[in-house]
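Quick one: structure for this chain?
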Amino acid sequence: MLIGIIGKANVGKSTFFKALTLANVLIANYPFATIEPNRGMAFVKVNCVCNEFNKQCNPRTGYCTGDKRYVPVEIIDVAGLVPGAHEGKGKGNQFLDDLRQADAFLHVVDISGSANEKGEPCNPGSYDPAKDIEFLEIELDMWILGILKKGWDRLVRQLQQEHENTIRAITKQLSGLNVTETIVKDAIKKIGMNAEKPSEWTGEQLKKLAQIIRKETKPMLIVANKIDIQGAKENYERCKKMFPEYTIIPASAESELALKEAAQHNLIEYHSGENTFKIIGELTDKQKNALEYIQKNVLDIWQGTGAQEATNSAVFDLLKYIAVFPGSANKLGDSKGNILPDCFLLPGGSTALDFANHIHTDLGKNFIAAIDVRTKRKIGRETQLKNRDVIEVLVSK
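Got it. Here's what it folds into:
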């Protein structure tokens, strides 16, 4: 699973990326500060099961604090897009292609309206952030349309001559976008196109096809960044009404980054997603004022910085993933005594057999059954798992 952070320049994308990962990235207020895509690990927050078993877990990856398990997910941040990116404007084509492999998008928008359409700084409120949501939809749709239309005439002739399956051919054309035949088939049916006569499809129908495929293969939520700047709240409320199809999360990337870095330097105790922090170190007056501002203008009003909520929403709401813990009905530790060392993220609808294969293909090959550790009940290979299940896999020797 890969989450892509997208948006135009100078909206706080790289700050948001660094806040999620604490990676050392270039943060600057000019277009294309990010040239090569940044990759890093963020974390989704899961209610850990260790407390249910009166144990303290020892995560192999990520970490656990209290009853909250932080499970790593990979994210990618590419350079800011500009209107006309699909035509090659800015660094458009290169950066759109960097996003091919992303499973979902976090679209970071400067909800305060302090960056114009080119990503240049302007007075807060002088630019309408709703335009950014609209322009990015268009860029992504036109990008996919461009891939679809590449060699379209040749493809149509080939289909007519060889009587190949249109759905299969289009799926192959868009294979880099993780498109399935089912997605293509459903999209064609929804638009009312004749799959047997692609030569009769109009340009407008192809555009609608690209749009549906984008929505199915690249689900997206909006990160309304810079929510603490004057006028941002009004823009946020207005955009929620204008774009009801999107989840729009109020956020302050700068606040999350400041809190994370303060915690890293043992100045405060802070856990991402919480709406407060505890001072544990000696602070300067400047640091105190900054933290007081964050508490009063971000955490108290919005109940968090939005960074953790955005990551969790992308994984669990957009992509419908579930978290599953390997365990044992007799003990929860591995051979080294580590308690519940793993927590795996799986697509919704995954079965016990899918879980076994995810851990290791040998477990899948030798799968006999599985056990729900909570209930001690044996389950079959086709049993669909639920979020926060604890499962033991039984294999033949």
